[in-house]
Design a protein that fits this description.
314 residues, globular, alpha/beta
């Protein structure tokens, strides 16, 4: 009889594992501190002062060896959990490892968030063998202000410092592809998102800083292939942000796929009814694009990510 109980228990665990895309439902990754000895320019030792990276590795039976670092949105005011674990789990469903970045924000200004995303890219490359990843297939993905951060990584990168004492800093910070969802791009009016500009650059940023952080002005031929999604009716971050970046990619002859939906709020997850159903289709388009880029497995993608907004912000 005891053996039967054991069999039932094993069956239940396997059912949870399969139903969650190969990851135990209760399993939570342990966040990795980007700088164990303290982040550059840290203002304290609280959680808000310690940028981290949470790894969600794809199940072994479908893992492709590709990884994407996710930059959640939040206007550089907070880091939205809605763009974290649910997105990483969805990437796992198509064999891609997802790494959720908790970057510094609000009391931190530029360059702190930029330092965090560059460090995250280098760290994943440094530990690629440990996680069975391809160091040449590491992308970045960002939502809203997180999209701005991802685009910063895609236009302002470096090959690393060969003589750096820290071996992680010797590696390239260039992402191999870029995914932008309703992204903040320009820091210039009238299309800038005022809250993101203030939170990232402060009250009176210099013209040079505004120019440096307006990422559409720095696209170049070695900017990675890019996928863009936005809404024509976005009242939070005007669609011109996405269009300007896409046009810059076009002029630099960088491959790009862009989807602009006619209707939809800035936060697609807040859409209802038929509008929400249409907006959710972008995840399938993204899965197709990731397959064309050699990142995703030819397995059915999981359902579009969702989030319960009654949960508190972090």
């Amino acid at each position: 009889m005891q053996g039967n109980y054991w069999s039932v228990w094993v069956w239940a665990v396997i059912s949870i594992w399969v139903g969650s895309g190969g990851v135990l439902a209760a399993e939570e990754p342990k966040p990795i501190v980007l700088w164990p000895d303290g982040a550059p320019g840290a203002l304290g030792q609280e959680q808000a002062d310690i940028p981290t990276l949470a790894p969600y590795l794809a199940p072994a039976d479908r893992a492709t060896g590709a990884a994407i670092i996710i930059c959640p949105g939040g206007g550089y005011h907070h880091v939205s959990p809605a763009h974290g674990e649910p997105v990483a789990r969805w990437l796992n469903s198509i064999g891609v490892a997802g790494f959720v970045l908790k970057y510094r924000h609000l009391k931190y200004k530029h360059p702190a968030p930029f330092q965090d995303i560059q460090r995250a890219i280098r760290l994943v490359r440094a530990r690629a063998a440990e996680w069975r990843l391809d160091p040449k297939r590491i992308g970045v993905m960002g939502f809203s202000a997180g999209g701005h951060l991802a685009s910063m990584a895609a236009v302002h990168f470096d090959p690393g410092k060969p003589d750096a004492p820290d071996p992680i800093e010797r590696l390239s910070s260039r992402p191999d592809l870029l995914i932008l969802s309703v992204a903040v791009i320009t820091m210039r009016p009238p299309y800038a998102h005022a809250g993101s500009v203030k939170n990232l650059l402060g009250e009176n940023p210099s013209p040079e800083l505004i120019a440096f952080c307006s990422t559409d002005e720095h696209v170049r031929p070695d900017t990675p292939p890019t996928f863009i999604v936005s809404s024509w009716s976005d009242e939070g971050v005007p669609v011109e942000n996405s269009l300007r970046f896409a046009l810059a990619l076009r002029q630099a002859k960088v491959p790009c796929e862009i989807h602009i939906y006619e209707r939809g709020p800035h936060n697609f997850l807040l859409a209802k009814g038929e509008v929400r159903r249409v907006l959710d289709s972008w995840w399938e388009r993204l899965a197709d694009w990731l397959r064309l880029q050699g990142f995703a497995a030819h397995t059915p993608a999981g359902p579009p990510p969702t989030w319960d907004y009654s949960q508190p912000k972090k």
